[in-house]
Design goal:
Keywords: Cell membrane, Membrane, Protein transport, Translocation, Transmembrane, Transmembrane helix, Transport. By secondary structure, the protein is an alpha+beta fold. Helices cover about 45% and strands about 30% of the residues. The chain folds into two domains: about 50 residues; about 50 residues, SH3 type barrels, CATH 2.30.30. The protein has one helix and five strands, in the order H-E-E-E-E-E.
């Protein structure tokens, strides 16, 4: 009779020990993991939608206009003469403006 009561109490003890860890994981998921995944998804979408003529800022703080763009390389026009080549991943954000198209 005492053996069955001890066995039933032992399984309740396991759930009592595991339950706080489950709650901590759920809290970490909603406070840390999920927002980070959303930010990564937004950044990836922003990098994929870049096009020629977009004004952007690099991670280093350089402002420029996209002159040429490929799958992994972006050429930025900083002023009328200077063009700099960057990795596409080095774009921090787009300013949301389109530069006027200059024809020569």
């Amino acid at each position: 009779m005492f053996e069955t009561a001890a066995a039933a109490g032992g399984t309740g003890g396991i759930w009592g020990a595991i339950l706080p860890f489950v709650f901590m994981f759920v809290i970490f998921y909603f406070l840390l993991i999920r927002p980070q995944q959303k930010k990564q998804k937004q950044r990836k979408m922003m990098l994929n939608t870049l096009s020629k003529g977009d004004k952007v800022v690099t991670i280093g703080g350089l402002h420029g206009t996209i002159a040429e763009i490929t799958d992994d390389i972006v050429v930025l026009r900083v002023n009328d003469v200077t063009k700099l080549t960057f990795d596409r991943a080095s774009i921090s954000h787009a300013t949301g403006e389109k530069a006027p198209v200059l024809t020569k």
